[in-house]
Specification:
Helix content is about 25%, strand content about 15%. It has about 55 residues and is of the alpha+beta class. The protein has one domain (about 5-50). It has a two-stranded parallel sheet with strand order 1-2. The longest helix is centred in the middle third of the chain and has 9 residues, at about 20-25. It is flat, with a radius of gyration of 11 Å.
């Protein structure tokens, strides 16, 4: 899988990604994958449980 207009990969979560999610919501939709590098490889995230809270 590769990045497209509707698919975005991010290595870690940052609060400014909320703007990207709003952009997806205002367009054709999309998916933001957290813990995935630009090549599409899963790298995981630290403190995943804390992010879910």
């Amino acid at each position: 899988m590769k990045e497209t207009q509707n698919i975005e990969f991010k290595r870690q979560w940052r609060d400014d990604f909320l703007a990207e999610l709003c952009g997806f919501a205002n367009a054709q939709g999309g998916t933001l994958y957290i813990g995935v590098d630009d090549k599409g490889s899963v790298v995981g995230i630290e403190n995943a449980k804390q992010l879910l809270e």
